[in-house]
Amino acid sequence: MPSALLAEQSLLCENPLKDFGVVDEGQRLSHTFVIKNVSAETIQVDRVNPSCGCIITSQREFTLAPNESTNIAVDFDPFGFGGMKMSKTIAVCVKNDKYPPLILMVNAQIKGIPYEKRILITPKDKTIENDPNKKHTLLLQVTS
């Protein structure tokens, strides 16, 4: 990596891309990225922004001393993306945008019914075992 680029970047991830390969639509996926402060100063991260609601991370704000590392765990829920190739990003942003954000990425090919061939039925007032927190969704495939 050119030294001029490193001079502009404060955070580094040796493996910024996680490719899950081919997965089932209902399969929840998890991965942990290891990031390191490669600058000569203490870095304060003030936000970790996933590009989609299907990516969840509990890591939001943290501080890293020079050469210190931390983990950023992400969960990816591909429900609703059957038949699609997904590429989602997570931006790790330094306070006051002093440095460019570190971009992490997750990829997956989701098996399932393609969007254009689905019928989604979600009854509004129906629950499972009379528990309002347990809803059900029925997916049907349209035949050609």
Name the structural class: mainly beta
Biggest beta sheet attributes: 5 strands, mixed
Strand order of the largest sheet: 2-9-8-4-6
Helix content: under 10%
Question: What value does the average pLDDT take?
Answer: 84
- Report the count of strand segments: 11
Q: Treating each run of at least 4 consecutive H or I residues as one helix, how many helices? A: 1
Order of helices and strands: HEEEEEEEEEEE
Distance between the termini: 51 Å
**Can you tell me the residue ranges where pLDDT is under 50 for at least 5 consecutive residues?**
1-7
**Per DSSP, what share of the residues sits in E-state strands of 2 or more residues?**
over 45%
Radius of gyration: 19 Å
Overall spatial form? elongated
